[in-house]
Design goal:
The protein is α/β, with parallel strands linked by helices. The protein is built from nine helices and twelve strands. Helices cover 47% and strands 20% of the residues. The protein has a five-stranded parallel beta sheet, with helices on both faces. Strands 7-9-10-12-11 form a five-stranded mixed beta sheet. The two termini are 34 Å apart. The mean pLDDT is 86.
Length: 363
């Protein structure tokens, strides 16, 4: 049973047959073509696991062929091994690799070197196929979870609204007959219904976060942060500072804005000082940019720094401070989807929330 397929593109029949005899076996199908055009057509039909391409072809050169395949959606994932004559120099090899080739061999070939290179490229191709299947399955399951969250939220909203309406009706119809204790209990019931409504809304917000991802683009994070700060209505004594020279990053604009808005919004909402100070900054962390939103607010106990990023988890009891515990979970989700990480650091006077943005965007 054939499990692998290789394609040899070379205008020399001798070279093609030598490679075919080397690579062919019971579980390997080897096809051949003698020109760039014929090779491209065979590649479209067969989608081989590896293509071995001669640099010099009668109707094109292998480097140009490799470049053209990189721009073709059906061919760009095929690993290409370029093969060249004895006179190929360093610049030729670099040009070949820069064209998208995964390897470059110079004739005369060592048989074991060819077999090792082809085996490596085959495994790479197989890993890419598996990753694609896993990504598709993950996308399908995430879509199912979002649909489930929408259904559950929709089904829960109706009874919650009914509870709130029932409380209103009881107070309207029997207001004069209600004692103080019963009024208090109805008030608690209304508050619980309102909180449940907010939690349901939080489930939807979390499930939708990052689901409709826009186009990544180069963003001036400093300009975006300053624009965001201008949208907040702050108490007179509260200030938000944006550090100078924040970097350009490749990110989805709305997602980066959501991350900063959640962190700054929390700092504003929970500020317990008459003169609040909030600062957005960033530093170079090698292969990533490390952003920081710091404040001089109440801070976070060290043992809760991880817990606050879990959905529905809060620092203060909800009876003391109304909060759904969804915002930081959304931050962590959006940051992770873009290849970064998010965490909190307690300070003696306040707290710091940090997240990283890779300099090389995640795939």
């Amino acid at each position: 049973m054939t499990t692998r397929s290789y394609l040899i593109i070379d205008d020399s029949l001798t070279a093609r047959m030598k490679l075919r005899n080397l690579l062919a076996s019971d579980d390997v199908q080897v096809d051949m073509a003698d020109s760039a055009r014929a090779g491209t057509e065979r590649a479209r039909q067969l989608r081989p696991d590896v293509a071995l391409v001669d640099v010099v072809l009668p109707d094109a050169d292998g480097v140009g062929l490799c470049k053209s395949w990189q721009e073709h959606p059906d061919l760009c994932s095929i690993p290409v091994l370029l093969m060249s004559g004895e006179r190929s120099g360093r610049n030729d090899r670099l040009a070949g690799l820069r064209s998208g080739a995964m390897g470059y061999l110079v004739k005369p070939f060592d048989d074991q070197e060819v077999l090792a290179m082809v085996e490596t490229l085959y495994r790479l191709r197989a890993a890419v196929k598996v990753q694609k299947v896993l990504n598709e399955e993950l996308s399908r399951r995430n879509a199912e979870l979002r649909d489930f969250a929408h259904v559950v939220a929709h089904d829960l909203k109706a009874p919650v609204r009914a509870i709130a309406s029932l409380v209103d009706c009881i107070e309207l119809d029997h207001g004069g007959d209600l004692g103080g204790a019963l009024r208090g209990q109805l008030s608690v019931l209304r508050g619980r219904a309102s909180r449940l409504h907010e939690l349901i809304a939080g489930i939807l917000r979390y499930s939708e976060a990052g689901a409709s991802r826009g186009q990544r683009e180069v963003i001036d994070s400093g300009a975006l942060a300053r624009q965001l700060v201008g949208s907040f209505e702050l108490p007179t004594q509260m200030q938000i500072e944006v550090a100078p020279e924040l970097p350009y990053v490749v990110f989805d604009r709305e997602e980066l804005r959501d991350i900063l808005a959640q962190l700054v919004g929390n700092a504003v909402r929970f500020m317990d000082k008459p003169t609040g100070r909030i600062r957005i900054s960033c530093e170079d962390a090698g292969d990533a940019w490390r952003f920081c939103v710091s404040d001089n607010g109440p801070g976070i106990p060290e043992h809760l720094c991880e817990r606050v990023f879990q959905i529905f988890q809060t620092v203060a009891p909800r009876d003391e401070r109304e909060c759904t515990g969804v915002g930081l979970a959304i931050v962590k989700k959006l940051v992770a989807q873009n290849g970064g990480s998010a965490w909190a650091v307690p300070e003696r006077d306040g707290s710091r929330f940090l997240f990283t943005v890779p300099k090389e965007p995640a795939g």
